[in-house]
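[retry 2/3] AcrR family transcriptional regulator: previous attempt timed out, resubmitting with same input.
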Amino acid sequence: MPEARTTATRTTATRAKSSPRERARAAFTRDILDISRRQIAESGAAALSMRAVARELEVASSALYRYFPSRDALLTALIIDAYTALADRAEAAHARVAADDFLGRWQAGCHAVRDWARDSPHEYALVYGSPVPGYAAPQETIEAAGRLPYLLLGVVRDAWEAGALGEPADTETPALSAPMAEQARHLAAATGLEELPDAVLVRAVIAWTQVFGAVSLELFGHFVGGFADNAPFFATSVDLMAHAVGLRART
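[retry 2/3] AcrR family transcriptional regulator: success.
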């Protein structure tokens, strides 16, 4: 059997197939996105301006519209890129942990979220901060946005299927209301997690939102004066949420 090609070889082959015009277009698109990210970091997403991006690129603003038909289209591309970068980081960390180490996989994914958010605070704010006035995210952002929560919820699903999900930390939680149970079933159907009991799925979603809440509070400065070092607090939050769902260390 021929030896598998490396990623670098595949990339070279892909480039060889693309025309100079296509490569130039891809490079200019990257320049547009890079400058847009810098503008967002400096002035916020609401202030993103196609005209200002064009000025920095030293081209007519009309040239940008051949790449992005509107400012909202440019924002959408930036949002998809941010979701993708975050999911890539979390998936890479998750993949380094043994498949049957469910707690370790949960911890790795959650800590990768915090690490990426600290490395890319303005991109994190773009997707998890205040909505951009007048912008409505289109359907095409959903797939990229769903990769990370599905990764974390998938850890719980795998633990459940393996019979490794322990009893939740709080066994006296009230039964789900009918509306909540209905929403849980809808979410399960949309994510392919129908095998999870409603209560387990809801606990997992709550755990995921609590983890993101801890990241957001830290990133937006709401822990100032509370915790001198946020890392131990975040690690404790991750572990408590895992315990609440029923994820346990391997024995």
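[retry 2/3] AcrR family transcriptional regulator: The two ends are 40 Å apart (CA to CA).
[retry 2/3] clearing retry counter.
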